[in-house]
Amino acid sequence: MNKKRLLRTLDKWHLENKFDKIINAILDIPEIDRDYAVINHLARAYNNIGSYKDAIEQLFSVKDKCKGKDPFYHYKLGYAYYYLDKFEEALNEFKLACNLFKNNQNVKDCETYPERGHEIYQEVYQDILFFLNDIELIILQEKVSVNETFT
Q1: H helices present in the chain, as ranges
Q2: Where are the domains of the chain?
Q3: Nearest residue to 15 via CA among 113, 118, 127
């Protein structure tokens, strides 16, 4: 299967919530043949089934290819950290993603999601804003709780 067709198939399965199918299909691809886009799909599927540590592991495996320019990468990493209750790390990743989205309007054409680029761009950006607000509230509540303990 050529790369474009594979990415379309993975995106279709994502929309159908067939995350195990995505994971199995990607794990059947020899590791050396898994590129940045495919690893991103694998990390997203892991996030969607609650395997956040696996998602982080996959994302770290392609960190050098991200070069700090892919907001989707930072979004997925922030998402995993968030659900592992690592709020400081999540906040950092979501801030990076938010800044990258704001500064790069061409990201909506990202090759990772060629068919639904603009739609995904809008959805993910809104999610990032939600997570940023939520994390800031959590951190504020933790600080208030700590202060109340010492007063």
Answers
A1: 3-15, 19-27, 36-48, 52-61, 63-66, 71-83, 87-103, 117-150
A2: 3-105+113-150
A3: 113
Specify whether the CB–CB gap between 46 and 21 falls below 8 A. no
Residue carrying the six token digits 């600080």:
143
75-100: string of b/e by CB count within 10 Å (b at 16+)?
Answer: bbbbbbbbeeebbebbbbbbebbbeb
Contact 93, 74 (CB under 8 A): yes
CATH superfamily of 3-105+113-150: Tetratricopeptide repeat domain (1.25.40.10)
Query: Could you tell me the pTM of the whole model?
Result: 0.79
Q: Which amino acid is at 58?
A: Q
| Cα angle 70-21-54, degrees, rounded to a multiple of 5 | 50
pLDDT, tens only, 60-87:
999 998 877 888 899 999 999 999 999 8
